[in-house]
Predict the structure.
Amino acid sequence: MALQNKPVLHGYFRSSCSWRVRIALALKGIEYDQVPVNLIKDGGQQVTDQYKTLNPMQQVPALVIDGITLLQSLAIIQYIEETRPGPKLLPSDPHARAQVRMISDLIASGIQPLQNLHVLQKIGEEKVQWAQYFILRGFEALEPLLKQTAGKFCVGDEISMADLCLVPQVYNAERFKVDVSQFPTIERLNQTLTEIEAFKVSHPSCQPDTPADLRT
Ligand SMILES: N[C@@H](CCC(=O)N[C@@H](CS)C(=O)NCC(=O)O)C(=O)O
């Protein structure tokens, strides 16, 4: 049997969408290589012609796996789920599965895109207030939903794709100085999840491209 190449993740240490995928790979125990795409340096490597051929949206992550290039973190996570053994990232019960997708989409479509780098560059001076506003607005919706769905984790007592979205979004909230303690369920879930090895090894503070002054 031909040796399969390791998947290659094109990402950025501080990108929350890349972190979602790193957590999925870690939970499934998949070894992979990383190709850093510096989103800041020289106007951003994501806008180069070379990277645009990989991802025309000029965003990370992109995962090259099984001979194909996959874009969009939730599509990538679901491909990993559907093709790899290991802990399930989506529950089999349709009700719980819908809740996982609902929470994941709320974060991935309703919060993160509004505080994305490119959007903030367009906003200009007001960017911090803008990001805080949309993160707060999203968390105000997320908190009562999670109160209904959460057990130990976002949906019941099993880790799911929703948890992979939550932790990087809380990290972003903290970067933008949003007081997460006003959302006790979000805060509790984040504390529990950040103690888990797969979340720790994929943390922005310890990636190959993490600058020395941000390493812990
Ligand atoms: N929906 C996409 C969003 C990807 C995305 O927003 N990536 C950000 C980093 S988390 C990015 O590459 N931003 C570059 C830019 O805004 O120029 C996904 O889930 O993968």
User: Anything to note?
Assistant: The pocket of glutathione is lined by residues 15-17, 39, 44, 46, 58-61, 72-74, 108, 116-118 (CB under 6 Å). The mean pLDDT is 97.
